[in-house]
Design goal:
mainly alpha, two-stranded parallel ribbon, 5 strands, globular, binds adenosine-5'-diphosphate, binds tryptophan
């Protein structure tokens, strides 16, 4: 039986952090033996926020090295760079003809990023939405809310649809993009009366999608939140970040409710430690004898058990340009086989045919 097709990618916007690892990369590696895996670096998506060209190139290389260091085997996986697949931008142009600007403007990630770039806060009521739209339309070009950012979901949908992927291992923050991908696929299929694009689903081995919290008391660990623990952080830096994590005054009565910063520490502990360790700290929280310093020390140690082998291997890969080049060239060559077939068929379905 042929293996089910999997596709996922990470934007090249800097080193990978624990959110990327638990939300995405860990599953990439766990899936590689049993699925037809396609994992890439989304450098075209990174362009939507106008990176410095030198940094963009360095980030692409860094992420290839981190994928490999985390255990991705390029013999089993098509590991490629998005911009090495010219079929993607072409299908992106075609699919955009079936995507509404309204639905793109309502996408949460677009609104969040555009708001940040325009320096405006979260909306308090419906009127703010209208003001926001006016500001976007009236914004000066130097504010950088560009058409690429608006059409980000189309490009992501194409990454997935062009490979006919069934499964997309991503974190919780990407679920709206997956929903849009399914919508675009259905719309295309029904407009042309074909059964062509496959509707993809998130994948986390049957569990709910993951959201790794920040240690600053906030909801999510993310590059733009500036609260990341990186896979390549050295032990001293990493331990310092964990020891500085926000806490509260501690439980005053047995079985007190858990505040958000403490819940965040527990969530990370559940991802990184063994069940008996988690149980121990929950018990001492419940009977009020917990010392947050001990919890953090344990957490830092357990995170380091995961990150140290990765950190130690990254530099070996980074020093071997020839190898990296070979890996991504082979990956692109293999990924282009299905991409060019899908593009060819999509063109025909849409009526773009040779005489
Ligand atoms: P960032 O949000 O830091 O810019 P990306 O958007 O490039 O990172 O995310 C790449 C992958 O990592 C996606 O699958 C995304 O869902 C996942 N991811 C990023 N941050 C988190 C997080 N805090 N928790 C879970 N998954 C995350
Ligand atoms: N949007 C994703 C992120 O920010 C990255 C991405 C681009 C992606 N194309 C994709 C993820 C296709 C999965 C599948 O994390």
């Amino acid at each position: 039986m042929s293996k089910e097709i999997v596709l996922s990618g990470i934007r090249s916007t800097g080193n990978l952090h624990l959110g990327n690892y638990f939300g995405a990369l860990r599953n990439f590696v766990r899936m590689q033996d049993n699925y037809d895996c396609n994992f890439f670096i989304a450098d075209l998506h990174a362009l939507t926020t106008n990176p410095d060209p030198k940094q963009l190139h360095a980030s692409v290389k860094q992420i290839v090295a981190e994928y490999l260091a985390a255990g991705m085997d390029p013999e089993k996986v098509n590991l490629f760079i998005q911009s090495d697949i010219p079929e993607i931008p072409e299908l992106y142009l075609l699919l955009n003809m079936h995507v509404g600007i309204g639905e793109l403007m309502r996408t949460t990630s677009f609104k969040d990023k555009a708001r940040k770039m325009l320096g405006i806060g979260a909306p308090a009521n419906g009127d703010d939405e209208e003001a926001f739209e006016k500001q976007i339309i009236g914004a000066e070009t130097n504010k950088r809310v560009n058409a690429g950012l608006l059409t980000y979901p189309t490009l992501m949908a194409v990454d997935i649809l062009i490979q006919k992927a069934k499964w997309v291992p991503v974190g919780k923050d990407q679920e709206q993009h997956l929903e849009l991908t399914r919508r675009f696929a259905r719309r295309f299929n029904s407009f042309y009366g074909v059964d062509f694009f496959v509707e993809p689903q998130n994948f986390n081995f049957g569990a709910a999608a993951i959201k790794v919290p920040g240690l600053d008391g906030s909801g999510k660990m993310g590059k733009s939140e500036g609260n990341c623990i990186y896979l390549t952080d050295d032990p001293k830096t990493l331990t310092k970040k964990v020891m500085r994590a926000m806490t509260d005054e501690g439980p005053k009565e047995p079985n007190s409710p858990v505040s958000e910063p403490i819940q965040n520490l527990f969530t990370l502990l559940e991802l990184t430690s063994t069940p008996d360790v988690v149980k121990h700290f929950k018990d001492v929280y419940a009977d009020c004898s917990i010392r947050y310093g001990d919890l953090k020390k344990q957490l830092a140690e357990d995170i380091l058990k995961i990150t140290t082998p990765i950190r130690e291997r990254v530099n070996e890969y980074l020093a071997n340009d020839d190898y990296l080049r070979k890996v991504v060239a082979t990956g692109a060559e293999r990924a282009r086989v299905r991409a060019s077939q899908t593009l060819k068929e999509a063109r025909e379905i849409m009526g773009i045919r040779k005489f």
